[in-house]
Amino acid sequence: MKIDAPERLVHLVAHHSYAVYEAELRGLTEELADFHDERGSIRDALWYCDLTTSPDGETVDAEDRIADFKRRYGPDHLVTRFITGATPELLAAVERTKGRLSAVSAANPNGRPQGS
């Protein structure tokens, strides 16, 4: 199936939420190598959104979301191994994004576009 999506979006989604680590666990490193990992603030923001949104679209704490993965898949599942090993990298992206959001809020405390 082919969709008309910007190449950057395709690459970001291919690498969402530390997919490179899961690809290693699944033996899919070569397949993922076709997609560039831009490793920046946009990637961090995508990971942040994935980890702070429940399957129902509710805002959740990232640690709670990770615990939910472990609960749903059980201790012996590959997804549980992945999320356990990926947790430090995932939470680091969440913290970097929170820091960026705080910096923007501090620079613009009234919530209006600057120059208004």
- What general outline do the C-alpha atoms trace? globular
Helix content: 55-70%
Radius of gyration: 16 Å
**How many strands appear in the DSSP assignment?**
0
Low-confidence stretches: none
* Largest sheet descriptor: none
| SSE succession | HHHHHH
Domains, number = 1
Give the N-terminus to C-terminus distance in angstroms. Answer: 45 Å
- Give the structural class: mainly alpha
Strand content: under 5%
Overall pLDDT metric = 92
Secondary structure tally, helices: 6
Protein model, in words:
With 116 residues, the protein is mainly alpha-helical. It has one domain (7-104). Helix content is 63%, strand content 0%. It has six helices and no strands.
Secondary-structure blueprint:
Layout: H1 7-14, H2 19-26, H3 29-32, H4 41-51, H5 62-73, H6 78-107
Short descriptors:
116 residues; mainly alpha; globular
Structure, briefly:
The protein has six helices and no strands. With 116 residues, the protein is mainly alpha-helical.
